[in-house]
Amino acid sequence: MKEYCKYCGRKITKSDNVCPGCGGRIEEDSTSSINQNDINRPYTSSKKKDFRIVLLLMIPAFLFVVFPFLIAFIVGMADLDTEISSLKEEIKEEIEDDDDTIGFNEKFIFDDLVISFGSEYEFVSVENTITSVNETQAIKIPITITNIGNKSSKLSPLVYEVYTPFNKTAKNINAYFEDNIDSAQELKEGESYTKYIYVLYDGDGAYKIKFTNQDKEIIIKLEISKNKV
Fold this sequence. Notes:
By secondary structure, the protein is an alpha+beta fold. It has one helix at residues 36-97; strands spanning 2-5, 31-34, 108-110, 113-117, 122-125, 137-147, 160-163, 192-200, 205-212, 217-224. It is rod-shaped and about 120 Å long. The relative contact order is 0.11.
């Protein structure tokens, strides 16, 4: 055991008349045999108590700030799921009410993508001097896609083929145009965009686009005419 000042707890010697720590006068009863751990214990306990108080005050503040954002996020996701479910049901009803042929401005679902081809097609020239189809005419057909799946996705050029009115496989010339569907970025859940499919013009008539995966095959029939109104 060591001797400590009874006022401040600092260690003193028997020869000290005044405590070097607090200046208190040392008398015979001014010192006591105190374990150093007993001196530090109240301070340590006080620190723990203060930390608990701060923690208790921070929890309500955290909940007050974060909780509204969390609720808004959950509600937003629920609304998005509702919109996507409604869109799926709407498209299913359209398909059931229609015949087996899908044409312009008609929606269909393929690989969790809602797809439709716009009737506002136009004729453009291929401008690429290193290709054999340079300066030939192409049909620019708008295609609108919405992602209703729960992960990012896009239309792969490997899942569809285009056929001319003479049932010949059309050459894919999308790469010659910047706004083509094959070069489009992936869509996040609920996102949509309108891009274009380019097809070499091979006369007026019904151009077919066949979508194929492991589960189904969908054929789109688009009547193309240079004399459209």
